[in-house]
Amino acid sequence: MKVSEIRATFFDYFKKKGHEIQPSASMVVKNDPTLMFTNAGMNQFKDYFLGNTNPKIKRIANSQKCLRVSGKHNDLEEVGVDTYHHTMFEMLGNWSFGDYFKKEAIDWAWELLTKVYKLDKSRLYVTVFAGDKLDGTKEDSEAIYFWSKHVKKDEIIKCSKKDNFWEMGDVGPCGPCSEIHMDIRTDAERSKVKGRDLVNKDHPQVIEIWNLVFMEYLRMSDRSLIPLPEKHVDTGMGLERLAVALQGKKSNYDIDLFQTLIKRIEELSRIKYGASKKTDIALRIVSDHVRAISFSIADGQLPSNTGAGYVIRRILRRAVRYGYQVLEIKEPFMYNIATTLVEQMGEAYPELTNQKTLIEKVIKEEEKSFFRTLEQGIKKINLIINSYKEKKQKKMSSLHVFELNDTYGFPIDLTSLIAKENNIDVDIDGFQKLLEEQKQRSRKASEIETSDWMVIYDQKETQFVGYDNTRAETKILRYRKVNTPKKNYFQLVLEKTPFYPEGGGQIGDTGFLEIENEKIKIFNTKKENELILHYASSLPNNLSKKAIAIVDKKKRKKIAANHSATHLLHYALRKVLGDHVEQKGSLVNDKYLRFDFSHFSKMKEEELQ
User: Fold this and answer.
1) Residue 443 above 90 pLDDT?
2) CA 208 → CA 205, 236, 302, distances in Å?
3) Calpha distance 185→195 (Å, rounded)
4) Taking CA 529 as the corner, what is the angle to CA 524 and CA 535, rounded to the nearest 5 degrees?
5) How many CB atoms lie within 10 A of CB 195?
6) What is the DSSP secondary-structure string of 394-422?
């Protein structure tokens, strides 16, 4: 089965089980300040799990584009070194929002894998949650009971909270999970060591393929657990890993999806996959990274120097570095591989086909720019090395190594290689220390601590009346305190609001909340998934009283004018430069507007006029 057939079979199966097949959400997250990229299939359904919105459809299945490059998930530097981790991957999932629960999720997962995909049952292992004393949770006897209908009871592996209790974050919905692992080793290897003894031991050929999460608790900020009002099912199966099992391969990079890309890189580099461990890692890295970059651009995230754009630039530069350093490709090449990717996956993901020209042009421009940076870096390292030679010093300082990495994108191994050729050592330990200090500073600057929601009135959704009104009679439904390194404030959810939340580049409204004789300043309004959050400097004395929400009208009028001007500018750019011009980012406030777009060359003076 090709990957496209595996995906289609999954959809067909769950369609018959009453699921609506939905397209993947954007990999670039637009309305959730806690995430840059979609890193799990459940991200787009967070509001259902949190109880902020009632789902209109109870059963859904999809294949979600995910990107994992930081945080608790794999570090970028590890991707491509092994054979089963990726930056961008597809997550097949089926969802139940307050509908079916453990029995159906377990029965259907087993039926699909063993009867439809026809995987060898003797190679499959299931895990369940063993309970946790600290949380006061017991072993998942319900899951054990349903699994025992399919596998022998003594073959069900009980695992700790670390492996078999899924949490959305430090606070929020969570629950026990049940994983299905696949043993793809040879029969000879299996006869020596039992597969069950290698489950959750990071063995590259005994891998988790499907995780069934049973969402039944809410984690509070004091770490306690309370039951959710409704129970949900959230499953995730790595498409690439499933393909390894179904195509009889030993590595994710051996499946048709990656081999098509690797063959194209072989043509460009004239280096065969399998020639050496070093070049194999480079070929894997390039084939993985071109997917992450292309899908991100198609979803509207261009490489840049900050935030999500910096993550994409970092991924792209890592691929170019390996192409330059290991595969010895000394000119832009990634954009050529992106073309192959679009041909291969454009049918399943039409956004790739629609943005094909933009993807190729952006990648090519980024590559050209980075090649110039590499040249500057080589000049810089030569100057540093000459100064060490003049002083007859034999060890390069960590500060120089860090500067080459941070400013010129030089990886530690490239710096070490060039230094070694000149009989100079590098201070690797010092460099790692500086790198860790930079990470800590970055983490500290962005640390946000939120308390649990305090519910005053149990109403889920806010009625937005801001298109027609700049004031409204309302009441506070819930609030929470937010602590940041710079200041502390409160987030309020109102029954009815005229405050327009930040979105599409437009800043949020400001104004006041009047309760009895008090005036509470609202200094920002944002949307978190489907919740409209009003940022208040303080809380009123009487939280349950009626309130009047008043928007700063003068400021709103100026913002509206700049918003209209943004649309006029977009129209003019398309008229002058062509229909490929699309908004890639913007800022609309009461003072000015900024409009980001991509064009393939510098604009001429008459075009600007």
Assistant:
1) no
2) 10, 10, 33
3) 9
4) 20
5) 20
6) -EE-HHHHHHHHHHH---HHHHHHHHHHT
Q: Which residues contact 310 (CB under 8 A, 6 or more apart)?
A: 303, 304
For the ranges 72-81, 471-480, 503-512, the lowest mean pLDDT is seen at: 72-81
Strands 395-396 and 425-426: parallel
pTM assigned to the model: 0.76
Phi, psi of 448 (to 5 degrees): -130, 130
**Tokens 């490929």 -> residue:** 580
The whole-angstrom separation of Cα 400 and Cα 403 is 5
Alpha helical stretches, state H, 112-173: 141-147, 161-164
Task: List, in sequence order, every residue forming a beta bridge with 528; answer none if it has no partner.
Answer: 531
| Across 488-511, average pLDDT | 93
Tokens of 250: 């030993």
Find the angle CA(270)-CA(75)-CA(416) to the nearest 5 degrees: 60
| 197/183 Cα distance (integer angstroms) | 11
What length is written for the chain?
609
Bridge partners of residue 533, in order along the sequence: 526
- Digit-coded pLDDT (tens) for 227-278: 988 899 999 999 999 999 999 998 999 999 999 999 999 999 999 999 999 9
CB 31 within 8 A of CB 528: yes
Query: Residue 446 has what pLDDT?
Result: 64
Instruction: Report the largest interatomic distance among the alpha carbons of the chain, rounded to a whole angstrom.
Output: 80
Confidence label for 514 from pLDDT (cuts 50, 70 and 90)? very high
CA dihedral 549, 552, 558, 560 (to 10 degrees): 0
Phi (first) and psi of residue 286, to 5 degrees: -65, -45
Owner of token pair 């995910």: 66
